[in-house]
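Contributing new complexes? Match this layout with S-adenosylmethionine.
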Amino acid sequence: MFAAAHFQTALQLVQTYRGEVPFAHFLKAYFSQHKKHGSRDRKQISQCCYAFFRMGHAIPDIPPERRMLMGLFFSATEPNPLLEALSPEWNAAAGLALAEKIGLSGLTPEALTIFPWTNLLSDPIDSQAFSISHLVQPKLFIRIRPGHHEQVIHRLEEKWIPYTEPYPFAIALPNGYNAANDFSLNREIVVQDLSSQKTGAALKLIPRETYQQPSFRIWDACAASGGKSMLTLDQFPQATLTVSDIRNSILDNLATRFKEAGIRRYTRIEADLSVTAPDLPQQQLIIADLPCTGSGTWARTPEQLCFFDPAAIGRFAELQRSISRNILLRLASGGFFLYITCSAFRAENEDNVLWLQQHFPLEVVHQEVIGGYTEQADSMFFSLMRLT
Ligand SMILES: C[S@@+](CC[C@H](N)C(=O)[O-])C[C@H]1O[C@@H](n2cnc3c(N)ncnc32)[C@H](O)[C@@H]1O
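Output block (do not edit by hand):
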């Protein structure tokens, strides 16, 4: 009975939502106005809403009720009480492989065009697997900071928390697990997506003669709350770090995290880098984790997939070029430029690297599309370039 009521509430919510704010904020505002919903109600209503958005642009003509139920079936990894109440037959099949479930619903994976802009994807991405991956919620990942590996693993095992380590120092955990209950955030571990951690592979390619210079200067140009800065300082603790962002408020978050992490020595700058480059000495490494469509992260925020206007791709690509153009003015000759996006679109990735190479003497040291969609993680792109 409750399940049917939650399903109806969720249907109203997804049909009222217009994409102006992240859906999580919209839902939070709704729940704070409707206190009658307890935690189980909120969980089931959210589950229905996200299942609806996970269907993306697939089969546009089906009624919303059917879309939501299909989304619940496809996104379930095991039987659950909500699906049992709504469709016992589908619930019994919830644990099957996704391709089988799609078949049971009378569709084929090819017909399920959840993500329609496949011709715009970066080349190595398997467009069908990428499209389908939006049905499944990504995992929670943490990164273990240097010197804490043994104790973190010990605590996970002591507390019987199921985990895997798909990449050195990267731990995958069940969604909904609150790492703050068991670990000192930012000191022992950092909450950071697997693919974001994998961009650190680029740092390992910086040669010794660069990072052993007495003044090895690093500028994290679009630092936000400092995920890449912390990753970089864990690799190069002696470096002189500058962080910048257009939003001072997010740099306040960075300051809090750095304090927790024990990082005290850095310079902070608020700047709109699409307009100008701040007055800084020449840097040996500049990291630009640029503003982008975020199309590699939509399995976390599937509503964005539903409301996306592809005209934004060109606007972001242009913004990425203007920021890169300005910050490259501060790169020392022989220095390294690490270009990063969490986008799956070629225009924001390989095409922009080609453009940069046409306008600056840059050679690509290593470039990679990180297909996180195969590991329930974000998809990202990085290119490590050297100014010749
Ligand atoms: C993808 S996020 C960076 C994430 C961060 N590096 C991390 O690992 O957590 C991009 C950041 O670029 C910032 N940004 C957007 N436009 C900018 C501009 N014109 N100048 C400087 N920063 C900008 C945004 O405020 C945002 O925090």
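Reviewers usually confirm one structural detail per submission. For this one: The mean pLDDT is 96.
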